[in-house]
Amino acid sequence: MTTVYGKTMLASLKKILAAHNLTDKFEGSEDFYAKIESSGYTPLTLEKHESYVTVTHYCEKDGALLLDPDMSFFLHDRLGLIPFTIQYSDGSHRITLPTTGDAQRFADHRELNSQNLFANKWGRNLIDQGFADLACSTVVHVDSAQTEMEFI
Q1: What CA–CA distance (Å, rounded) separates 87 from 78?
Q2: pLDDT tens track for 24-41
Q3: CA 92 to CA 30: how far, in whole Å?
Q4: Which end of the chain is more exposed for a tag (fewer CB within 10 A), N or C?
Q5: Is residue 53 over pLDDT 90?
Q6: What distance in Å separates the CA atoms of residue 97 and residue 111, rounded to the nearest whole number?
C-alpha cells in the first residue's frame, strides 16, 4: 500500500488556486509565486519551483519580514505533497531528508508523519480562514519569478 502525503493540504491548495483562477498558472509553469490576503489573517504566500512547493505566512514586525510558519514540500504525481521541512518565526526548523526519490525511505519517519499531520491541519485552517473564499480574500501579487523564498 502506497502512502499519499498531504492530501488535505493539497486539496486546500487546489481549492485556493481554483477560487482565484490560478490553477493553470500554477500547473503550467515551473516557477510560480502568489500572495493572497484574507481579511483578519496573515497573508499567505504560495511558491512553486519545479516540484518544490512552499506554503508560508509572512508578516512584518519592526521592519523585518518574519515567517510563521514556512512549510516546504515535494510535489509528486503518485505520492502527493510530501513534507520536506517546516520553519517557524523564531528561526527553528525541522527537516526530513529523503535518502532516495522514494518517499518510503525518508530519514525520519516520525518527523515525516508529524509534518504531514501539521500540513493537513493547516490546510483545513486555510480554508476555514477564507483563503478560498472570494468574499473575504484577494490575490495581491502573482509572478513566475522567485521572490521571497529562501533555500535552507
Answers
A1: 26
A2: 999 999 999 999 999 999
A3: 28
A4: N
A5: yes
A6: 10
Q: What is each CA distance from 49 to 30, 67, 102, 120, in whole angstroms?
A: 5, 19, 20, 21
Say if residues 80 and 87 touch (Cβ distance below 8 Å).
no
- Residue 93: pLDDT band (50, 70, 90) is confident
Measured CA to CA in angstroms, residue 93 lies from 33, 34, 54, 66, 113 at distances of 22, 23, 14, 14, 15
Predicted local confidence at residue 89, as pLDDT = 81
Cβ density class 8-24: b for 16+ within 10 Å, e for less: bbbbbbebbbebbebee
Residue 14: pLDDT over 90? yes
| Max CA separation in the chain (angstroms) | 49
Average pLDDT over residues 92-112: 68
Nearest to 119 by CA among 56, 77, 40: 56
